[in-house]
Amino acid sequence: MSAQQPTDQRRDDDAAETAHASAAEAAASESSAEEAALREEESEIAADYLEELLDIADLDGDIEIEVHQNRTFLSVVAEGEQAEDLKMLVGKHGEVLDSLQELVRLSVLAATGNRSRLILDIAGHRERRKGELRRLAEEAVASVRESGKDRHLQPLSPYERKLVHDFVAELGFLSASEGEGPKRHIVVTGPREAAEDAASVAGADAADAAGGATGGVPGAPGAVPQHPDPAEVTVDFTAPGEEPA
């Protein structure tokens, strides 16, 4: 009887674990389906808005839609002279494109009540810019490696800052954002390994200090300094230049 009870208990535990796993998979599948439906709705609304915009501006272009990591990417593309015409929707430094992207996001918000994180590209501007940002990250890392000093980059949009952070991380270095509003920019610091080593040393020092707080062998790492007996302390009152008594 006693041998049968553990077996039954194991079976019950296995059944409960299987049921829990199945429920988790079902919840994940449902969440994934809901997310896919949201991205599809977002894409349709954004595409309709862009098509209307192109008609108003009397511009031709095809709209391509992709979804990566639960984020919608829309691209307006064309060839030849039509591609050149689309550049008027980009601006000299992409400022017009950024404004249009915000308008498209607002159209999604107005229609669904959900904030959008979609990315809009026109005439391949963001792809070209992505290459420029990669080179910027490589140059900054090379500068930090050679000089040992932090490198401050020019202000960038949130999306471009994320790209640069990713590029810097791929190169094994650390970066952080500083500043506020239009002055927010990236600072490239030292290698990730050096920071990890420093953190490891700091952790070891903290552990030693914590251990030393309870005492220890004099001279050993983490040991509490042994103070001399006040009765054994001698004070030299000899004035400078005089011989000790």
UniProtKB/TrEMBL annotation:
Record field: compositional bias (Low complexity): 18-35, 197-211
Highest taxon, organism lineage: Bacteria
GO molecular function: RNA binding
Pfam families: R3H
Name of this chain's protein: RNA-binding protein
PANTHER family reported in the protein's UniProt record: PROTEIN JAG (PTHR35800), RNA-BINDING PROTEIN KHPB (PTHR35800:SF1)
InterPro entries noted in UniProt: Jag_KH, KH_dom-like_a/b, KhpB, R3H_dom, R3H_dom_sf, R3H_KhpB
Domain annotation R3H: ranges: 127-192
Annotated segments matching region Disordered: 1-42, 197-245
